[in-house]
Design goal:
This protein has 13 helices and 15 strands. The protein is α+β, with helices and mostly antiparallel strands. It folds into 2 domains: 3-185, Chloramphenicol acetyltransferase-like domain (Chloramphenicol Acetyltransferase), CATH 3.30.559.10; 248-409 and 429-479, Chloramphenicol Acetyltransferase, CATH 3.30.559.30. A 7-stranded mixed β-sheet has the order 4-5-6-1-13-12-7, sandwiched between helices. It is globular.
């Protein structure tokens, strides 16, 4: 396991959980029987496990935590332990489904088994079913999670899986002595890794959350960039980031173990029309919609800060689109969300300009700064350090207000076990450090599916926030002249 993967285990407490999930809504009318059962899912997974090896992997801890845990193929792996089936009261509706998912999302995964679960949920209207799939962030990031999901997804109903060329044989479980020796060997190399990492990070300390707010860090980063420029002999100047003080909000407080979840869908073609009308990107549109919806939602609570919210935007650091290396290859950009601006055109201009600046600054920083930070300390103390950092963040204002993530999916119809995928709602992570609110969108086929997760104790409700995203899209359509009205120029 890499240092970054291990941090997603280290940050977990009774309230901070580090698993990601997806809620897929399915129409089983396209299956041969017109239904989808737990037995169907187990049969499907059994034929596809060779396409998704991490589904069989479980943790092996190193004695005294001298090294990061290891992954092994679980010799006791049993699909029956991971696939479950439940039912809502008949035609309970979206809100009851969301409440059920929120409860499931607040439960930790069993670390003695491979870190994933799947729930088939019956009782939706019109004969639909839902599939809630949860996997630990130590196993996957957005890209590898999509790759694993792709192993059970088909482009047409009834597609046979590729044959498994080699029957599965679990590897032997390493002995504690073996892992202890390996851990000691790696520990001896830690000082060298720390020095190399610090040297790489110094020029970009001002772009790293929290570090940039420590007195003297900006000046130290400037000096390090100057030294690097003299040593390399080329101009490596970087764009200056705006100050990013994190305002207080109702959802930036220590989170509880209880979650809220709400979901909705926006038409992808309308999002693209807005993108084209204003000459911006789809991601700019998403960020602008989030800023507008958050302003309205916080306004309902009389809690709109007088300065921008600060959002963390996850970014994949994989070098190629086909990179399927297991684990996490990701970083994050910080960007202001102009919820303090009342004028929608000013909000859109601000999003466009700040996202352009932040992307330019991110392009000059080490792509793997998040992974580099994760390996600064020896494995034996990093777990304690991470949990201490969480407690400190919980006692003060966190480094960001929330996470906003935009994941691009395939633009074609998809099927699971022969059932047509009608929607694909992300269910992501909240924590004391990243804030008690997460907005993640997934674009696929003709839809932009939105999943919003929050701490139940700090948010009154989430459905109006989802509704305000739709209102914000209609507002931008009017401004862009997409509803027959005269456009407003940016």
């Amino acid at each position: 396991m890499t240092a970054l993967d291990a941090q997603f285990l280290n940050i977990e407490t009774e309230t901070n959980l580090a698993h990601m999930a997806v809620l897929a809504v399915l129409d089983p009318i396209t299956t041969p029987s017109g239904t989808l059962t737990r037995t169907d899912l187990i049969t499907l997974l059994r034929g596809r496990l060779h396409l998704a090896p991490p589904l069989r992997h479980r943790l092996v801890q190193v004695p005294f935590d001298l090294d990061y845990p290891y992954w092994i193929e679980d010799p006791d792996f049993d699909l029956e332990n991971h696939v479950r089936e439940i039912a809502l009261p008949a035609y309970g509706g979206d809100r009851l489904l969301a409440d059920q998912v929120a409860w499931l999302h607040g439960l930790p995964l069993d670390r003695s088994r491979p870190l994933w679960e799947m729930y088939l949920i019956h009782g939706l209207s019109a004969g639909r079913v839902a599939l809630y799939c949860k996997m630990h962030h130590a196993v996957v990031d957005g890209v590898t999670g999509a790759n694993i999901l792709a192993a059970i997804v088909d482009l047409a109903p009834g597609s046979p899986p590729p044959p498994d060329p080699d029957p599965w044989q679990p590897e032997p479980v390493p002995s504690p002595v073996d892992t202890l020796v390996e851990g000691l060997t790696r520990s001896l190399k830690q000082p060298i890794r720390t020095l190399k990492t610090l040297g790489a990070l110094l020029p970009d300390l001002d772009a790293i959350p929290l570090a940039g707010r420590i007195p003297g860090m900006r000046e130290l980063a400037d000096l390090s960039r100057t030294v690097r420029q003299i040593a390399v002999g080329t101009d490596r100047s970087v764009p200056e980031l705006p100050p990013m003080p994190v305002p207080e909000t109702p959802f930036n407080r220590p989170i509880s173990a209880h979650r809220r979840f709400a979901f909705g869908t926006l038409p992808l073609d309308e999002v693209k029309k807005v993108k084209n009308a204003f000459g911006i990107t789809v991601n700019d549109v998403v960020m602008a919609l989030c800023a507008s919806a958050l302003r309205q939602w916080l306004g309902d609570q009389d809690a709109v800060p007088g300065e921008p919210l600060i959002a963390a935007v996850p970014v994949s650091t994989r070098q190629t689109a086909g990179d399927a290396t297991p684990g996490n290859r990701l970083s994050a950009m910080l960007t202001p969300l102009p919820t303090h601006l009342a004028d929608p055109v000013a909000r859109l201009e601000s999003v466009r300009d700040t996202m352009h600046l932040v992307k330019r600054r991110f392009a000059t920083a080490p792509a793997n700064w998040l992974a580099d930070l994760a390996q600064l300390l020896p494995a034996a103390v990093t777990g304690v350090a991470m949990r201490t950092a969480l407690r400190l963040a919980a006692a003060a204002v966190p480094p960001v207000n929330l996470i906003v993530s935009n994941v691009a999916g395939p633009q074609v119809p998809l099927y699971i076990g022969g059932a047509r995928v009608l929607a694909h709602y992300p269910v992501s992570v909240i924590s004391d450090v990243t804030g008690g609110l997460n907005i993640t969108v997934f674009s696929g086929e003709d839809r932009v599916d939105v999943g919003v997760v929050a701490c139940r104790e700090s948010t009154p409700e989430l459905w109006s926030l989802v509704r305000y995203l739709g209102d914000a899209l209609e507002e931008l359509k009017r401004i862009g002249g997409l509803t027959g009205e005269r456009p407003s120029a940016l």
